[in-house]
Amino acid sequence: MPYTGPLAGTKVIEACSNLAGPVTGTIFGDLGADVIKIEKPNGGDDARGWAPPYWNGHGASFQAINRNKRSVALDLKRPEHLAALKRLVVEADVFVHNMRPGTAESLGLSGAEALALNPRLIYCAIGAYGSKGPWSGWSAYDGLAQALSSQMHSNGEPDGEPLLVPGGIVDKGAGMWAAIATLGALLRRASTGKGAVVETSLLETSLFWRDGGFANYQATGRIAPRAGNAAATIVPYGVFRTGTGPMMIGCAGDGLFAGLARLLGRPEWIEDPRFASNPARIANRDVLIPLIEAVLATRPRDEWVELLGANRIPCAPILDAAEALAHPQVQALGIFQSPPEMDMKLVSAPWTIDGQRPPIRRPAPALGEDNEAVLEG
Predict the structure, then answer these.
(1) Are residue 258 and residue 158 in the same domain, yes or no?
(2) Which one-letter DSSP state was computed for residue 160?
(3) pLDDT single digits (tens) 58-92
(4) Residues of the chain where predicted confidence (pLDDT) is lower than 50
(5) Does a structural domain hold residue 225?
């Protein structure tokens, strides 16, 4: 039986490139919507060229984030192509774009103009620094938002340089927030019949990731030092050396620490005033961590992972991509799927509904492959 997700029958026009906006489109595609990706005829979405490596003629990462979509190539400098896009907007439930500041307005597709064409439309704009303020007209990417928000400053080793968080975490977060807010607007439309303008940005997303850092600064008046692979407010939490390699352990409470102490054969730590509470452990971090690692060094990493994990002490091995892909827990989730007629395993939707994970119904489309079906159908 063909997959019918909760958004089956919903039409989404995605005029996006790179990462943040396409993530929003992918979320809607995974939920069953008909997502039509608008691309420029000359090269399409810039992410098609994020290579090598290539897969099916595109950058491999493009395949990962553009499944379950159709592609229409339009040159929006041509009046007839812009008119075609506006016709699609009139028929759509959602229009999402991450165009450079001012571009949508220059095309006659600002939020107000789009809703004048289609009053039931949910118009979603993903910006760089937000729609207000002195930098509202500037362009940005993931790393620049990390720099401005203090996210980059907070990341890295205590005595090292600031570090980017890899993997497009701000882009993907902005795409997620855009989808969540758009779903809320769709829910409201169901009862009011009215469309909405949804806005988010890379900067707002990166600021959200730093919410605790801002709260802690205001509470203390101090900028917390970089914690590296540890946590500034929890001990023990971080990377620990074992007999054969590093692992992560996290004990975000006194009960968990007591359980860890017993499993390590050091029950006396539980009543030791230096370690009896989390604030005490933070004050004595430099004493406790070497003591823990001295015990961990006596056995292989995977033995510790099994022992601690089986006793509900949060822990995990530190794996590379190949190891993570093959790990039995990852495999059990069924989150890796191959699109039809494509021998590449992609990370699919990170959720299930009624026990079913949305299938990858089609791979990332070739540039403009659906022009005829969409524009003339």
Answers:
(1) no
(2) S
(3) 899 999 899 999 999 999 999 999 999 999 999 99
(4) none
(5) no
- Give the pLDDT confidence score for residue 1 in this predicted structure: 64
- Domain of 113 in residue numbering reads as 11-209+334-375
In a 10 Å sphere around its CB, with 0-12 CB exposed, 13-18 middle and 19+ buried, how is residue 201 labelled?
A: buried
- Rounded to an integer, what distance in angstroms lies between the CA atom of residue 94 and that of residue 122? 5
| Residue 217 is assigned to a structural domain of this protein | no
Domain-located, residue 355 = yes
Domain identity same for 275 and 343: no
Residue 254 annotated as catalytic: no
Distance separating alpha carbons of residues 284 and 272, to the nearest angstrom: 11
- Taking the C-alpha atoms of residue 211 and residue 207, their distance in angstroms, rounded to an integer, is 6
My answer on whether 306 and 338 are in the same domain is: no
- Rounded to 5 degrees, φ, ψ at 160 are -100, -170
Distance CA 303, CA 321 (A): 21
Range list of β-strands (E), 11-160: 11-15, 34-39, 54-55, 58-59, 70-73, 94-97, 122-127
Instruction: Please give the pLDDT value at position 2.
Output: 75
Residues 87 and 151 in one domain: yes
Tokens of 310: 């089986």
Cα angle value 156/158/160 (rounded, 5°): 60
Query: 24 lies in a domain?
Result: yes
Whichever domain contains 369, its CATH number is 3.40.50.10540
Out of 30, 171, 272, 302, which one is annotated catalytic? 171
